[in-house]
# Entry
Amino acid sequence: HFWGKKREAIILPPVKGRIRSVTSHDGKVLSYVNSDTALIIRPDASQVGDEIITCVLNIEGVGRQSVSVPPPSTSGSLAYRAKVTASSSVAQMLHDPVAAVDDNPGTHWKPGRRTDIDWHAYYGMNINYRNREVTSLYHDAAWLEVDLGRDVPVGRIRIMEHTFFNSTIAGFEVQALQGTEWTPIAGGTRMGDWAQRIDPVTARKFRLVIRGAEGMPGIREFQLFSN
# Structure
């Protein structure tokens, strides 16, 4: 778990069975509350010096095969951990499409390199990565698509832009797939930390379409809410 500067509590799905103890990786005892809705671990900030902590749970009962349990959403976004695709991506891990629906503003999706460029012509050249000649090699128009898995009514949208030096998204549109047509439901000419309520639209798939950009911006979060 990454603490961050505020040292918030760690909130996990509830654990079935009796917990004997919760300790940090170095054996320090951590306080906790395990209810029907969540396991909340509240280490004292004075106990933990690292920003990244591993919690060890000693649970009473017969051992069973461990499974991966994703953390609950911190935003309540319908798009959290949904299936997501994009027109292109600059790299995996921190900058692939999943980074835009992970409830973590510290990661972001960034559109990838243009395919109509002869990249071999640039190998070995001494060009600053902030130079306009370099940023123009990447897509300034792109799309990010979220599949919610079923038809869901959406009445509020929030999008967080990642800026790279003086980059900016100059125009964008949010669309919903209605039948076989992508229908515009919101949009703007400047993004930043953008949010808007809309008349509820029921759909399974939603798209964020970037119409134009300067530099190499990205999307930190693409969030959809029912209200």
